[in-house]
């Protein structure tokens, strides 16, 4: 399907950042080459349209646009500024996509799916307000073999175009559990046989490098500023910390989560 050579209007119905307009319920905007490419490869049926900056005259068409044509996905050309207005960001890498919304699981639905597994790792993100951090956290969870990520729809970032781009497509692959009450979710995981482990720096926390994970683990991480809410801390069975050897005394939440998930996977492999 050949690209449509037309400018995307500022009041395009898909441009939900514009006053008075929004996407249809549950639909999403995804931006960035990697994020759009992952949807094309893993869930092309979710793609409604792709918007891209038109190649310069005589320039070679990008691999992404060629893949769109191959899969019959409609492509409309837009200026860089129009894509910025559409996504609410200038880091869209000259491409955005209108996609059908992801299905968010609830805890019971997820637990039913993994009931027969001997081991399972789930990441819970509490009070991660920065979309970049949240997207990178999703990417870390997918790369390190987590079965899902859980977060609150009330306290933290959501799957925005910026978060989806930062996830490099992981937000389109990893099972997503978006709920209201994280403390209640932690209780449900415990009743299903998961040990709840909170990443905390306090006197009762155990050294990550000598920590023995349970086969079924719910790992909770919080932001550097806000941390983990007290109510959720109380729900944890144990807590864990990463000892710092350098002069900087803390890691980014996504880095810390990746390290902890890697330690869990290493134990499972032994």
Notes on the structure:
The chain is α/β, with parallel strands linked by helices. The chain is 31% helix and 19% strand. The chain is built from nine helices and eleven strands. The strands form two sheets. It has a seven-stranded parallel β-sheet with strand order 7-6-5-10-8-11-9. The chain has a four-stranded mixed β-sheet with strand order 1-4-2-3, with helices on both faces.
CATH topology of the largest domain: Alpha/beta knot
Low-confidence stretches: 1-25
From the alpha carbons, calculate the radius of gyration and give it in angstroms.
20 Å
Main sheet: strand order: 7-6-5-10-8-11-9
Order of helices and strands: EHEHEHEHEHEHEHEEEHEH
Q: Give the proportion of residues in helices.
A: 25-40%
Biggest β-sheet strands, sense, barrel: 7 strands, parallel
How confident overall, as mean pLDDT? 83
CATH architecture of the largest domain: 3-Layer(aba) Sandwich
Assign the CATH superfamily of the largest domain.
SPOUT methyltransferase, trefoil knot domain
Total number of strands: 11
Classify the secondary structure makeup into a structural class.
alpha/beta
Distance between the termini: 50 Å
Domains, number: 2
Shape annotation = elongated
Number of helices: 9
CATH C-level class of the largest domain:
Alpha Beta
How much of the sequence lies in strands comes to 15-25%
Which features characterize this protein?
Alpha/beta knot; 60s Ribosomal Protein L30, Chain: A; 2 domains; 270 residues; alpha/beta; elongated; disordered N terminus
């Amino acid at each position: 399907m050949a690209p449509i050579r037309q400018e995307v209007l500022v009041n395009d119905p898909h441009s939900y950042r514009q006053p008075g307009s929004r996407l249809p319920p549950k639909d999403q905007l995804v931006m960035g080459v990697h994020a759009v490419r992952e949807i094309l490869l893993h869930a092309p049926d979710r793609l409604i349209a792709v918007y891209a900056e038109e190649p310069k005259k005589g320039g070679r068409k990008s691999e992404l646009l060629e893949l769109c044509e191959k899969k019959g996905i409609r492509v409309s050309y837009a200026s860089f500024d129009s894509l910025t207005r559409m996504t609410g960001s200038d880091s869209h890498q000259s491409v955005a996509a209108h996609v059908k919304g992801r299905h968010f699981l609830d805890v019971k639905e997820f637990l039913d799916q993994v009931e027969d597994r001997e081991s399972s790792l789930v990441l819970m993100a509490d009070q991660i307000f920065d979309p970049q951090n949240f997207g990178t956290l999703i990417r870390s969870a997918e790369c390190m073999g987590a079965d899902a990520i859980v977060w609150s729809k009330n306290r933290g970032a959501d799957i925005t175009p910026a978060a989806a781009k930062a996830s490099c497509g992981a937000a389109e692959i990893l099972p997503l559990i978006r709920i209201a009450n994280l403390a209640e979710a932690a209780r449900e995981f415990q009743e299903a046989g998961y040990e709840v482990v909170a990443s905390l720096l306090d006197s009762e926390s155990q050294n990550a490098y000598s920590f023995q994970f349970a086969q079924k683990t719910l790992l909770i991480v919080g932001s550097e500023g806000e941390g983990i809410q007290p109510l959720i801390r109380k729900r944890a069975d144990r807590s864990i910390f990463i000892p710092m050897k350098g002069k900087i005394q803390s890691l980014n939440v996504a880095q810390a989560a990746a390290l902890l998930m890697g330690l869990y996977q290493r134990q499972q492999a032994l």
